């Protein structure tokens, strides 16, 4: 049997740079640096109770949430890895109130990086998948043509402006999912060579599904369109949908979205009477996931409009999220109209 050609992340990116002219050398190096940081985070997550990463860090982040030690550590790993490469103008993170411009001792580049360093971190201590989500934007030039000023305003671009987006899941295997605008592709970390190898090229999300993911403990607070959709799913083959549905909820968006990419499904964190604007963050959770899902043939809305078309108003803005198999997302969205 002929040996299958193993395509490594570097090779995949060089093809996008040299042959497809989709990315430039700076963006390629930036993605490689992020991937290297994800490998370092994966190693720390894998140590579990043998490392010093479990438990709380006795600090709270900008949203008032108690930080885990690994939240803080993952944030530091990403900051340190990306500060000096010369391809970024500034970074922003779920764990930091304000964007951090690249220190003046390093050269500044044209890109802005946003990340959630450890998504699903309440799952760390119970050995359930967690991950890193990232989004890359271009730093816009000022109206008078001067180089961009990488303050919060520079980051407030709709998700459609992303030049790259991705996430890593630290689960039974570590997988990096990436889009640079020509589909969605996933790479598995080969622990022997410690490289990311392309294992899921050009992922396509099935248009239909019988699987939904939502935290049903919020059911009493949902808006009527979401309640109607879930009621119809729960009614199964006896109800208007005429088929049975299954439910999954990991409470790590990275793991739930990877499942949707792998076999279809709909993932929802809708707005409700407690989370009036939704719970997830637009800039470094919903936008990158929406681009990844759209690039895989799925859809992502906030119930009213495509997430990628929303004009952000703040770095840490929350948003309702409905994403996954296109026909189901369109159905829930139509119930909102
Ligand atoms: P944490 O990072 O604070 O654990 O939050 C994870 C998350 O942002 C997302 O990954 C999950 O889908 C969602 O929150 C889980 O929320 P619930 O705890 O309300 O189910």
Q: Can you say what the CATH homologous superfamily of the largest domain is?
A: Fructose-1,6-Bisphosphatase, subunit A, domain 1
Shape: globular
Instruction: State the CATH topology of the largest domain.
Output: Fructose-1,6-Bisphosphatase, Chain A, domain 1
**Portion in beta strands:** 15-25%
The portion of residues assigned to helices is 25-40%
Number of domains: 2
Bound compounds, each kind once, are: 1,6-di-O-phosphono-alpha-D-fructofuranose
Radius of gyration from CA coordinates? 20 Å
Poorly predicted sequence stretches spanning 5 or more consecutive residues: none
Structural class: alpha+beta
Largest sheet: 8 strands, mixed
Distance between the termini: 55 Å
Assembly type? single chain
């Amino acid at each position: 049997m002929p040996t299958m050609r193993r395509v490594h992340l570097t090779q995949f990116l060089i093809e996008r740079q040299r042959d497809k002219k989709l990315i430039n050398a700076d963006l390629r190096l930036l993605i490689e640096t992020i991937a290297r940081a994800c490998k370092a985070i994966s190693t720390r997550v894998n140590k579990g109770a043998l490392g010093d990463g479990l438990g709380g860090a006795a600090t709270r982040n900008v949203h008032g949430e108690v930080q885990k030690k690994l939240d803080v550590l993952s944030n530091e790993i990403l900051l340190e890895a990306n500060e000096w490469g010369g391809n970024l103008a500034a970074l922003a993170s779920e764990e930091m109130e304000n964007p951090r411009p690249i220190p003046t001792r390093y050269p500044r580049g044209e890109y802005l990086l946003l990340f959630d360093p450890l998504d699903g971190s309440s799952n760390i201590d119970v050995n359930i998948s967690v991950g890193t989500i990232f989004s890359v934007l271009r730093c816009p030039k000022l109206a008078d043509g001067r180089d961009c000023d990488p303050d919060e305003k520079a980051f407030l671009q709709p998700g459609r402006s992303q030049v790259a987006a991705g996430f890593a899941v630290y689960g039974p295997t570590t997988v990096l999912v990436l889009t640079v605008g020509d589909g969605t592709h996933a790479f598995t970390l080969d622990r022997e060579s410690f490289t990311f190898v392309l294992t899921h090229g050009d992922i396509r999300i099935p248009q239909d599904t019988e699987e939904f993911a939502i935290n049903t403990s919020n059911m009493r607070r949902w808006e009527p369109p979401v309640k109607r959709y879930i009621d119809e799913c729960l009614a199964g083959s006896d109800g208007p949908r005429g088929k049975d549905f299954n439910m999954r909820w990991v409470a790590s968006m990275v793991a739930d979205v990877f499942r949707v990419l792998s076999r279809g499904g709909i993932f929802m964190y809708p707005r409700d009477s407690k989370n009036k604007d939704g719970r997830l963050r637009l800039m470094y959770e919903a936008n990158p996931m929406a681009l990844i899902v759209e690039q895989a043939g799925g859809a992502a809305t906030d119930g009213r409009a495509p997430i990628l078309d929303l004009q952000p108003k703040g770095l840490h803005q929350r948003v309702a999220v409905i994403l996954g198999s296109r026909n189901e997302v369109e159905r829930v969205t139509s119930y909102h109209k």
